Amino acid sequence: MYLGRVIGNIWSTVKDERLTGQRLLVVQPLTPELKPTGKQLICTDAMGCGAGELIYWVKGKEACMPFLPTEVPVDTTIVGIVDEVHVDRNK
Amino acid sequence: MYLGRVIGNIWSTVKDERLTGQRLLVVQPLTPELKPTGKQLICTDAMGCGAGELIYWVKGKEACMPFLPTEVPVDTTIVGIVDEVHVDRNK
Amino acid sequence: MYLGRVIGNIWSTVKDERLTGQRLLVVQPLTPELKPTGKQLICTDAMGCGAGELIYWVKGKEACMPFLPTEVPVDTTIVGIVDEVHVDRNK
Amino acid sequence: MYLGRVIGNIWSTVKDERLTGQRLLVVQPLTPELKPTGKQLICTDAMGCGAGELIYWVKGKEACMPFLPTEVPVDTTIVGIVDEVHVDRNK
Amino acid sequence: MYLGRVIGNIWSTVKDERLTGQRLLVVQPLTPELKPTGKQLICTDAMGCGAGELIYWVKGKEACMPFLPTEVPVDTTIVGIVDEVHVDRNK
After folding, report:
1. What digits encode the pLDDT tens for the residues D26-73?
2. Is C39 exposed, middle or buried (0-12, 13-18, 19+ CB in 10 A)?
3. Which of A7, A10, A15 lies at the smallest CB-CB distance from B84?
4. B78 touches chain A (CB under 8 A)
5. Cα nearest neighbour of A10 on chain B
6. Lowest-confidence pick of C65-69, D44-48, E37-41, E72-76
7. Most D CBs within 10 Å: which of A58, A70, A72, A90, as the mutation test of the D interface?
8. Domains of chain A from N-terminus onward
9. ipTM value of the model?
10. Which end of chain B has fewer beta carbons closer than 10 Å to its terminal beta carbon, N or C?
11. D39: left (phi over 0), alpha (psi -120 to 50) or beta
């Protein structure tokens, strides 16, 4: 999984019908030190996240899992909200 | 999913037979600020997109889903058209 | 899918038995303007491509599809030959 | 698989319910010479790793396998602890 | 598939039990001109490769195929040994 922050959302009316009712959030990937890293992407949200929230997301086939048994055509999904990150680079 | 803009198409007569009837669009990935980012790719189109349209696309196994139960050998598919993008980087 | 050009091939006698009879072509990825971009790779060929040909290829699990029901252990396969590429960046 | 070192962990209370009880470790990818390379990520841990430990991890659909038959929505999982790395670049 | 050379191996005693008996080789990806390119990785070996050998490998879900019906949690596997590479960039 990858760290990120919710920085926005997109509106879309014409879309694959299985995407109906899914929120589409713009996510900025972050390092564990919470610095932006890499390209922003659009995640579906299985958690009810708000703007600015620190989250982690999965990509690939696993991104569909929270929506099973419906096979939603998504490849990036938020699966949790981060309370705290602990990093010790000296170890 | 990833933001992009339709910037062209390709014609192909010799192809895997399950690709027959699929439109093949050239897509330029974009940032949420709609700046080009990364390599152009070829997406199938499940939405009926036109040139210049702002879209989002999925990659990987999920790209086949709009065409199920036929197993079309594609790995990148447009699944929606973007109405609006909202980004607030201060949050 | 991604644009590319066939620039060579490889010979291999010791290989997974399900690869027997598969041609292994060296492909240079291209931009829509047909400039080289990114790393060369080895694709199986479901189309009968020749050297120098302009093609498009899929990656990931989808690369197995042209060979089903045999589960060939490949992750990159040529699925079509390009006749023409149209790109209009002003749109 | 890819080499890495466990450099931290994250706490998360709001998450997909199938992630309950999974430890979420922050991993720094390494070269075979044990130099940091590329972006840190969050792995689930099927091995009981401690901070500072040298490990290898899988990504993609395979990351779910240690948890089957439960379909846990993860895409990066530690599957082993490294005892020794031998590299001979002259060969 | 991708070209590479076997440049080492790793020893690991604590690992997912389905990895028992699998050799874990360190692979340096190569261009068709046999220059190093990109990050080294750890591949399982379905071919019995030796150090220094020129090989090609698959990544993703396909990497499990040589070990089916056992679902081994691997994402990169050597599937063949290269005899010769032919590249003609003028075509």
Report:
1. 999 999 999 999 999 999 998 999 999 999 999 998 888 888 888 889
2. middle
3. A10
4. no
5. B85
6. C65-69
7. A58
8. 2-81 (2.40.50.220)
9. 0.89
10. C
11. beta
**Contacts across the B-C interface (CB distance below 8 Å):** 102
**Does residue A46 sit at the B interface (CB-CB below 8 Å)?**
no
Cβ distance of D26 and A87 shorter than 8 Å: yes
Q: Which residue, among D22, D15, D77, has the nearest Cα to A79 in the 3D structure?
A: D15
A60 touches chain B (CB under 8 A): yes
Q: Does A50 touch chain D (CB under 8 A)?
A: no
- 3-state SS class at C41: strand
A11 Rama sector, left if φ>0, alpha if ψ -120 to 50, beta otherwise: beta
Tokens 């302009």 locate to C54
State the Cα–Cα distance between residues E25 and A59, nearest whole angstrom: 26
Q: Which amino acid belongs to residue B12?
A: S
Q: What is the pTM of this model?
A: 0.91
Angle, vertex CA A47, rays to CA A43 and CA A52, nearest 5: 65
Which residue type is seen at A3? Answer: L
Q: Strand D76-81 vs strand D41-45: parallel, antiparallel, or unpaired?
A: parallel
The full DSSP string for B3-70 is EEEEEEEEE-SSB-GGGTT--EEEEEEB-TT--B-S--EEEEESS---TT-EEEEEEGGGGGGGGTTS
Phi/psi at B5 (5° precision): -125, 140
Q: What are phi and psi of E62, to 5 degrees?
A: -65, -25
Alpha helices (H) along chain A: none
User: Looking at the partner chain, which of D62, D81, D87 has a beta carbon nearest the beta carbon of E75?
Assistant: D62
